[in-house]
Amino acid sequence: MTTHHLVLAAPGLDGGRLFGAVTYSALAAVAAICLVSGMRGSKKVRIKDDPDKVGALAIVTGTLCVAAGGTWQDFAQAFGDNASSSFTQSGLGEFGQGGISLVLTALTFVPDWKKKIIIPAVLGIAAAVTFHTAGGSWGLIINLILTPARMITGNA
Questions:
Q1: What's the pLDDT tens digit per position in 109-120?
Q2: Residue 54 in contact with residue 47, Cβ under 8 Å?
Q3: CB of 27 closer than 8 Å to CB of 66
Q4: Cα(129)–Cα(15) distance, integer angstroms
Q5: How far apart are CA 17 and CA 2, in angstroms?
Q6: Among candidate residues 42, 48, 51, 104, the one with its CA nearest the CA of residue 79
Q7: What is the pLDDT of residues 91-145, one digit of tens each?
Q8: Average pLDDT taken over every residue of the chain
Q9: Can you give the pLDDT at residue 35?
Q10: Partners of 14 in the β-ladder
Q11: What are phi and psi of 124, to 5 degrees?
């Protein structure tokens, strides 16, 4: 007697991915939408009155943009390059990429930006870009952000 098993492909978790096929570009777009919507006063993303939350979400957005590559990376890189060149060509001495990351992170979170939430948003994106080139402990922040992103995209 022979037993036959019929296996059918069923809809569900494709390769363990919770949301199906999702790329870093999609995650970068969602993060950017949340950042802009939150800054404009969205009731779903409540960050408008908290510059620290704006800065943190901007760092997440910038990190995802760099990971996405292409136009997303170019967008974030514009912020990072402008900020980096402001320090490297300032005549204040050599900062190094780690130093630039430290200064941009301090500028994102230390001053009391009150209602000027665009400033920590721009500085946070710029800081995220410099994290990728700085190396060292800045890589921990990148990995903290990208580990769940890898799980969502299936690139774990």
A1: 999 998 899 999
A2: yes
A3: no
A4: 31
A5: 35
A6: 104
A7: 777 788 899 999 999 999 999 998 899 999 999 999 999 999 898 899 999 999 9
A8: 86
A9: 96
A10: 17
A11: -65, -45
Instruction: Tell me the C-alpha distance between 154 and 117, whole Å.
Output: 33
The pLDDT > 90 percentage for the chain reads 62
Joined tokens for residue 19: 């949301």
The CA distance from 26 to 36, in Å, is 15
Question: What one-character-per-residue DSSP string does 71-128 give?
Answer: HHHHHHHHHHHHHHHHHHTSSS---HHHHHHHHHHHHHHSS--TT-THHHHHHHHHHH
Name the DSSP letter for residue 40. T
Q: What are φ and ψ of residue 140, in 5° steps?
A: -65, -40
The token pair at 150 is 């890898």
pTM: 0.85
Indicate the SS3 state at residue 152.
helix
The residue behind tokens 């190094």 is 96
